[in-house]
Amino acid sequence: MFESFRTFETTLAGRPFVVEVGKMAGLANGSCLVRYGDTVVLCTATMADSPREGIDFFPLSVDFEEKLYAVGKIPGSFLKREGRPSEKAILASRVIDRPMRPLFPKDMRNDVCIVCTVMSVDMDNSPEIAAMNGASIAVAISDIPWNGPIAGMAVGLVDGQVVMNPTLEQRQKSDLSLTVASTHDKVAMIEAGANEVSDDVMYDAIMKAHEQNVAMVDFINGMVREVGKPKREFPSQALDPDFLASVEEFATEQVRWALFDDDKTVRDARMAQVTEKTKEHFATVDESCLPLIDEALYQTQKHVVRRALLDEGKRVDGRGLHDLRPLAAEVGLLPRVHGSGMFTRGQTQVLTVATLGTMREAQLLDGIDNEEYKRYMHHYNFPSYSVGEARPPRSPGRREIGHGALAERALLPVIPSEEEFPYTIRLVSEVLSSNGSTSQGSVCGSTLALMDAGVPIKAPVAGISCGLVTEGERWMTFVDIQGIEDFFGDMDFKVAGTHKGITAIQMDLKIDGLTGPIIKSALELTHTARDYILDEVMLKAIEAPRPELSKYAPKMIRTIIDEDKIREVIGPGGKVIQRIVAETGCKIDIEDDGSVFIAAADADAGARALAMIEAIAKDPEIGSVFTGRVTRIMNFGAFVEIAPGKEGLVHISKLDHKRVEKVEDVVSVGDEIKVKVIEIDEKGRINLSRKDCLPKPAPAQGFGTK
């Protein structure tokens, strides 16, 4: 039945990596089933027969599909089926897309769809790595034109040692979460989160992963030789060289005039004039070429920017290769929010707002890994006005989700633990103006907002981007790229970190990969730049986290009670905890391990709720003092509730220092009084004293004394 069925096997990080071809998804252009341990991913690649009309880009889509059956779960939604992709699935799709996209022909316009369906998950063997390698195999053995293959590897740092494709246990104690994709000769993609890892350690980890990837590329090439299909021809959408040369001849000097200014709005306005003049000129030559003018001018701009960098070391805004744009930082811009910070770099400006909430407000997750919730979230918004466009708002796309996740990853290593700071933390970065590297602007703005909110972060984090232009063996890197240099350059190498080390990396490429010296140069440039940003800009705006939280932020108190006391604190039907909430106005969360989180509008209310809970959870000891409420009056004394559901007796003789004739002369039902535990009998009954909490009366002055 499966005459073309083949199985190929190798090892990846010392574990079997098995690829099955020819058994499933036979109508796709290319497909394979990847087995990595008990992780199983079906990878398929398909291509449209003809180009999509009216577009000037290569239409590639990559989807990493999480199926909850892969981990034996039923989706938690009302419909009980998978809905829109989770953020982690979107991020996995982007990681697979980035190293593969530059290797497709630039002049192809046929739709290509790559789908990686996760069917079984073994937590020790990453489905993302299985999918990346499987996607590469599916395209490489298909008839889709592509200059791959690539291979991918995850890297950890456990007890100072670099570990390839770490297991779940190793990942939980790793100081590094790095993914590296490579061609046979170069590094094609880097994505990292790190616990302040040094440049040298990061570089070493990247290059060790690259060495491992080369072996996987060789394995894939062996598969291609055995089962690969001949690559299809496709109608090229490249501009006619003669036409492009005529546009460059007419417009190059005008384009130079338009582009060399430090203001993006001026450049855009000038380019609009150049475009209009160019179209007017070529309309008199051949009107049929007018739809191609925009693409030809794009190529002309690219040529002008790159030649200026390579031949003159000149940037369009006049900066040197290692110069930063003007920088500014502010905090406390919004009076009612819990924390705010704005970071400006040239015409890129990001405002981040910090909000603190209870642990109950942590985000619940429904995915294929072991993470059930997260208490720190970072959301990134990119409105159209930030680039001067008139578009109605829309829901976050993959770019917004990716940039938010990058900033989240950059700051995660410095966020205090739940035990140190029992809050849910949400950061929202609003891009107010965009001219390059807004994701790193959001890292800086977010650090400012956290410090303004009084979050005791371990160290401030800054982010910066490094660019690249190449020509044959020639190359040069330059720091703090703006939009035009991102569009026409070869690389956007984003690095965030503290003074001590790197916390996040994301690398986007338009070429087939990077050599080791280029990576090392980018790490050095970004380290110097982020140190300057921290010392000369951010820490001058705010030196350290504020010592106190905003008066509008909830006041959180955390305590731990014995697990066998949880039922008493909650009470039958929740009556006890509901009463504490009603009397104090606090929000209270109790977890299964006995952790109690109290969120109060003010410190006094929180202290009162804590005292009530501790009075229930801790058995009273002789000598303990409580503030209780009189619940009943008898002729021999008063019963006082020292905690919800827990009473003691104040005998009439213990009500006051002086003789008390009637209990009602001293206290009434509902009075709050301070009492001291003086006895607990063998039956657990509590005897209290009000007298021992009152100041002793002054001794009486006798007559006739001298």
3D architecture notes:
With 706 residues, this protein is of the alpha+beta class. Helix content is 30%, strand content 29%. It has 14 helices and 29 strands. Strands 8-7-9-10-21-20-18-19 form an 8-stranded antiparallel beta sheet, sandwiched between helices. A 6-stranded mixed beta sheet has the order 1-2-3-4-6-5. A hairpin with a 2-residue loop joins strand 12 and strand 13 (348-357). Helix 1 packs across helix 8, helix 2 (127-140) crosses helix 4 and helix 8 (398-411) crosses helix 9. The chain is elongated and about 115 Å long.
Keywords:
alpha+beta; eight-stranded antiparallel sheet; six-stranded mixed sheet; 14 helices; 29 strands
Summary?
Helices cover 30% and strands 29% of the residues.
Number of distinct beta strands: 29
Extract low-pLDDT stretches.
none
What's the gyration radius in Å? 33 Å
The average pLDDT value, as a whole number, equals 93
Our estimate of the beta-strand percent is 25-35%
- Shape descriptor reads elongated
Report the sheet with the most strands, covering strand number, pairing sense and barrel closure: 8 strands, antiparallel
Give the N-to-C terminal Cα separation.
Answer: 121 Å
User: Largest beta sheet: what is the strand line-up?
Assistant: 8-7-9-10-21-20-18-19
The tally of helices reads 14
